[in-house]
Write a structure and sequence with these properties.
Strand content: 5-15%
Structural class: alpha/beta
Shape: globular
Strand order of the largest sheet: 2-1-3-13-6
Number of helices: 19
Helix content: 40-55%
Radius of gyration: 21 Å
Number of strands: 14
Largest sheet: 5 strands, mixed
């Protein structure tokens, strides 16, 4: 327990004594961390809170992208019964804050100096109208390739330096009778891969113009057509059973040597770690070829919904403080695969991929090449994101050719705005 959380616990205890002798000290937490690695990371937070006398009512909603969880959340809020804490991403936080549904964490943030240690790019989602409304747990970056070390060695494959070498490596794997690219056929997974294709083809300025500014000329451009063509190339290296596969099962294919590569955010690393593997030994990590020097990110954050019970409010503040504790941020992120949301934390406890991720995040932030991920709700609002999902996954499943897909993307975004 940190000094900060100890102080907060004492303050909470005084508040409870003054308010009522029988106030609740539980948090009901809605989240979608249900894979093995994610569950292991979540247990770190549960144990931290239990040590502070705060109980945990678990409300897991399976589905890596979180869309199912948001549907359940909407139903709960509409019924007048919101959970006390909810895992959220990006613009979803802003949407709920704009509705006046989220608790104000600003007093705690000021006491603990969050403004000084959380990167500005994250604060853009953690704050609404100048008020802290969410506590960032981590920073995930999404433009990673994960690879099986033994299979690379067996086939004589080295880390690809560019898109052409990446395609050549996948062809070599396919020719050898292995799955070249482990992938799950779900809309958010397709979009995660597409994020990197767009960045790799057009670079950071194009990515910003297309996915953040939503410029129709960029969305329908030759660069976007090329990004869709690269998706068609990747589709040729995916096995026949990809449809509906969960992302962690695709990660397991790489871990088990059934496939060589997976393009996925660094939450995938949590699956390798949970399987007892070590970064740089059994598995490798590198940026999607063509995206080096840039980082597309999302950040898991916990938003606290407004509740009337003072005990629940106190428990929320204890949870938010625990989330932001440097000790917890290290313990959680070394298990989860992500990097801390605080910039004042040493990389000493992190493995090779964690150290690389922390260094590259810092470099990208300093150079202006840190961008919110379209696929993970950090580039545009949910309605636009879902409209893009429909086109991207439709194309990946053969509904459109690349030229048609780019035109459909322009139309879909226009209608969603």
């Amino acid at each position: 327990m940190t000094k900060l959380t100890t102080r907060l616990k004492g303050a909470v205890a005084v508040g409870l004594i003054c308010a009522s002798p029988a106030l609740a000290t539980d948090v009901e937490v809605l989240h979608w961390w249900t894979s093995g690695g994610e569950a292991a990371a979540l247990n770190v937070l549960k144990a931290d809170l239990n040590g502070q006398g705060v109980g945990w009512q678990d409300m897991p909603i399976a589905g890596g992208g979180g869309s199912d969880a948001m549907t359940v959340l909407r139903a709960r809020v509409t019924a007048g019964d919101p959970p006390t804490a909810v895992q959220m991403l990006g613009f979803a936080i802003q949407d709920w804050a704009s509705e006046g549904a989220l608790a104000d964490l600003s007093a705690l943030a000021t006491e603990q100096g969050w403004d000084d240690v959380v990167p500005a790019a994250l604060q853009g989602f953690s704050k609404n109208d100048g008020k802290w409304v969410a506590a960032p747990v981590n920073v995930h970056s999404t433009n990673w390739v994960w690879a099986n070390t033994a299979l690379m060695a067996e086939l004589g494959i080295t880390q690809p330096a560019n898109w052409g070498e990446f395609v050549a490596a996948m062809q070599k794997v396919k020719d050898a009778g292995h799955v070249a690219l482990a992938h799950g056929g779900q809309a958010w997974q397709d979009a995660t891969v597409f994020d990197s294709m767009v960045m790799g083809v057009g670079g950071p300025e194009f990515y910003k113009t297309a996915f953040i500014d939503l410029d129709p000329d960029a969305l329908g451009s030759a660069n976007m057509v090329e990004a869709f063509k690269r998706m068609e190339t990747l589709r040729g290296f995916v096995d026949d059973n990809f449809s509906g596969r969960d992302w962690n099962l695709a990660s397991a294919m790489v871990a088990n040597g059934e496939a060589l590569f997976q393009i996925m955010g660094d939450w995938a690393k949590g699956e390798f770690v949970n399987a007892g593997q070590t970064a740089g030994v059994e598995f490798q990590c590198f940026r999607v070829p063509g995206t080096e020097g840039t980082v597309t990110f999302n950040s898991d954050q916990f938003a606290m919904f407004k509740v009337g019970d003072e005990g629940a409010m106190a428990a929320q503040m204890t949870m938010a403080s625990a989330v932001m504790s440097p000790v917890f941020q290290v313990a959680f992120n070394t298990v989860k695969g992500s990097v801390p949301s605080r910039t004042d934390i040493s990389d000493e406890a992190f493995d090779a991929c964690g150290k690389l991720g922390m260094a590259q995040l810092s470099e990208a932030s300093a150079s202006g090449k840190l961008f919110g991920s379209m696929a993970h709700g950090h580039a545009n609002n949910p309605s636009v994101q879902n409209a893009m999902y429909d086109v991207i996954t439709g194309h990946f499943n053969g509904e459109y050719d690349a030229e048609t897909a780019a035109a459909e993307l322009v139309t879909a975004v226009e209608l969603a705005q």
